[in-house]
Amino acid sequence: IDSATRQRLEVLRGAADARRKICIDYLDLNERRTRQRVLRPLGCFYWSATWTLAAWCELRNDFRSFRVDRIEKLDVQDERFRDEPGKTLADLFRREAAARDCKENPP
User: Fold this and answer.
1) 45 near 51, Cβ under 8 Å?
2) pLDDT per residue over 4-37, tens digit each?
3) 92 Cβ partners below 8 Å, 6+ apart?
4) How many Å separate Cα 106 from the centre of its chain?
């Protein structure tokens, strides 16, 4: 793991633990440009050699995953967030489990 990713992970984990919103500049490879997002960081996960951030995206009003190596700028905000129904890490896990169940066991 490179030092920039390691530093971002430390900041992201700290923000998630403190329940502080973050503002990121994220490199969107599809559009080949950087986009700014305000997020509620929920957790960092390692998938097949790539670190990702699971977060609630204020812009999309939905869960999103962001590759940590594509976060170009990261600012922890003073604003805190509270767990709200439908916006927690547990809610994300339940949604993903339900989607997997539907895919594996179609009606």
Assistant:
1) yes
2) 999 999 999 999 999 999 999 999 888 788 999 9
3) 42, 54, 63
4) 29
pLDDT tens digits for range 73-105: 999 999 999 999 999 999 999 998 988 777 777
Q: Which residues contact 104 (CB under 8 A, 6 or more apart)?
A: none
- Say what the pLDDT of residue 77 is: 98
Band (63; pLDDT cuts 50, 70, 90): very high
For 28, the token pair is 């969107």
Using alpha carbons only, how large is the chain's radius of gyration in Å? 14
Helix and strand element counts for the chain (H, E) = 2, 5
Residue of 15, 3, 4, 13 lying closest to 44 (CA atoms) = 13
